[in-house]
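Re-run with default settings, no changes from the original entry. Doing this only to confirm the output is reproducible before filing.
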Amino acid sequence: MTDAAGAFPPFVERPPWLTGDLQTLRNVIRRPFHDLSDWPEQRIELPLDDGDRLVAQIHRPAAPQALVVLIHGLGGDANSVYVRATARHLLSSGYTVARLNLRGAGLSAAHCRSQYHAGRSEDVRAALARLKPSSGPFFAVGYSLGGNVLLKYLGEEGRGGPLTAAAAVSTPLDLAASSRRLLVPRNRFYQDYLVTRMKADALAEPDFLSAEERRRLRELRTIFEFDDRFVAPRHGFADAPDYYARSSARRYIGGIAVPTLVVHGLNDPWIPAESYTGLPWNSLTEVVPLLPRGGGHVGFHGVGSRIPWHDRCISLFFDRLVKQ
């Protein structure tokens, strides 16, 4: 745990979710439903410069105190379990919440001719510019790949962006290292699950794919192959290593100039702990790292509360800034 840990409740894994894998899979095993019906949903389309549109699903409490934009991870969308869990917790705490569907995901898919990737920070930039409230604090939270996009954006913007503060959960700061980790035999299940979701999303809009791209997609078996043979050529990268090098948040994190909470479990089965332990956190003056030994990948099911620990930490972090 880092020096920042004292400002937040300690994380202790809740039985029976006592390993990184069980923490990661708990939402799949239990399939919790986080009901948001107490806060009616408004859908807003956010146009992008190339004609695509993103869809944000916005919920407002009776007396809102700030707006928080939630950005999902790889293979997910605004209805992912972890997004809805954070949304319910923040709405119950008085925050307005916008659940953003990235390009080609969820409700955005019908309005897009291409898809998100880990380096597409220009989409977050455009979405935040359109969602920015006229007054009051403005926050964002990114999970996994969405966290990478958000941290990259923050590093590029410095103090020039609209956000008051941000948080990132289980972010693959080093995309190449995470890709290699998912190739190890013990992660075969995760690899197959993610690749199946990624291929299904890409093939869902066949009108935008060439016959060669459709054939290539059906042959892909790993995330590296997907990134190397599909993502890279479609988005102007030479290959997967070039995509990873140019898109990894680790390259940009030194430029972050607004308060940013970074939450990561060192037993995350998808992301090597070294991606975090090797960073010079003391020199990143605006970044607050929370690095407990447990928690898995976007898990953090801890003792003392059924609300995920990362959600409680995020609300504490934002609360302090709202009250300043």
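Residues 188-203 form the longest helix (16 residues). The chain has a mean pLDDT of 94.
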